[in-house]
Amino acid sequence: MLTGAALYRTAFEHEIYANHAMLKMLAGVPEANRSDPLFQRAVSIAAHMATCREDFLALFLGERLTFREPFGILSEVASLEERFMNWEARWKEYLANLDEARIDGTFDFQDSGHTWRMSLEAQLFQLIGHAAYHRGQVVLLVDMLGGESVDTDFVDWYCAANPSSWSMVD
Q1: Is residue 12 a contact partner of residue 95, using CB atoms and an 8 Å limit?
Q2: What domains are there in the chain, each with its CATH number?
Q3: What is the pLDDT of residues 70-107, one digit of tens each?
Q4: How far apart are CA 142 and CA 135, in angstroms?
Q5: What is the rounded distance in angstroms from the CA atom of residue 60 to the CA atom of residue 108?
Q6: What contacts 88, CB < 8 A, 6 or more positions away?
Q7: Which of 2, 40, 127, 170 is the most buried (most CB within 10 A)?
Q8: How far apart are CA 106 and CA 118, in angstroms?
């Protein structure tokens, strides 16, 4: 059973898989449709996902207390893969060293002129849902732009990676 730090490490491994599938979908949008504002919206959403992961890790590590503008960093599709790989490597290291005591802890951040304290576990869980939500938006936009979309559901990925985790019972 997945709990605690193992749950977040496994969820993150799936996120890496799903993110790179999403980036491949973006790269597969036909050139003729890349000038469509929907394409820039899809790229902007993917960049937003990277910004959020980068910023929350910086907050968790105490490297800074504030967020950047979450949709303020514009990216080109070609630069997204390297950006994702960079923050994914940092997150893998962070999660490899994450223990139950730290999960039960808090972190501080500043927003709207105030300092806030939040549960680390609540934010870790939020990041899982946040990524899936935005990947879904990107996949829909890719589909609308004539690109090929693929299924990135967790359970399909998990069962393929862990064949003994499921079986027919009748």
Answers
A1: yes
A2: 4-165 (1.20.120.450)
A3: 776 667 888 999 999 999 999 999 999 999 999 999 99
A4: 10
A5: 8
A6: 16, 19
A7: 127
A8: 5
